[in-house]
Structures are given as structure tokens and as C-alpha cells.
Description:
Helix content: over 70%
Radius of gyration: 9 Å
Amino acid sequence: MLEQELGNWKDFIDRMLNA
């Protein structure tokens, strides 16, 4: 479940950086 949370955060951060 922690790995899924990290993946979710990575996706969120990746979107913010590419915004």
C-alpha cells in the first residue's frame, strides 16, 4: 500500500514539474 502511495505522489509531482 505504501508503494501505491509513493507512485501516486510521483505522478502528482511529475505533473506539477511539467506544468
